[in-house]
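New to this. Help decode the following:
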Amino acid sequence: MVHIEKMYFTVKEVARRWGVRKCNIAYLVENGELKVSTRLEGARIERGTIEVANGQSFNIPHQQDWFSGILDLRRSDAFRVFRDGQARIVHFGAEEREYAAVVEPTASVEVRLEHLVIRRCERDRVEACHGDKSDTVADGIAFQHDADYRNVRLGPTEMALGAVQAQVVRALHEAALTDQPWLEGKRVLSGAGATSMRMSDVFKSKTGWRDLIASDRRGRYRLRLNPE
């Protein structure tokens, strides 16, 4: 049998190895816990340093060349690919105070979800973060959900949700991925089609729902992306 020592893997391959869904890979990427890459073929790439003067930043190019190989994506661009299925990308991941970007005649690069790959070293780094061999990457993902949010998991706690409850959690999760994670409870409940405007009434059938949803005691709620 031939053994191929691959240097990178598709998102599907890594999800299967870790026993998680693609949406959980997206969660890790969106929250800066996993770096994804893409393969370029014959793109004109400029690399250089970023200098700051008088509060403004300037790119100082060091080299340009035709590039074929793997480049890392910036987290914001990776998020767009997972969210929309594709994105036109100009800038790629680089070290601090450095940049890597496509330049003419390469205007931009279309990256699709199926183009994403995870380097072996990045896959191994995430796995190593879990230390104890009895742990799995799936155990370490704070929040997991299926496509319609009817089944969710926070750390070791799993919940099967009703339709309204699922819509509430979906709204809170979408907010949690922004810089404004707190939402007005009544507005969320109304948008989910709830008949009660009290979060405790809507989730009274779910023991431990407060481990999933936090309250500021002033009518606003957020999802706990990390168990407390």
In short: The CA atoms of residues 55 and 97 lie 14 Å apart. The radius of gyration is 21 Å. The chain has a mean pLDDT of 88.
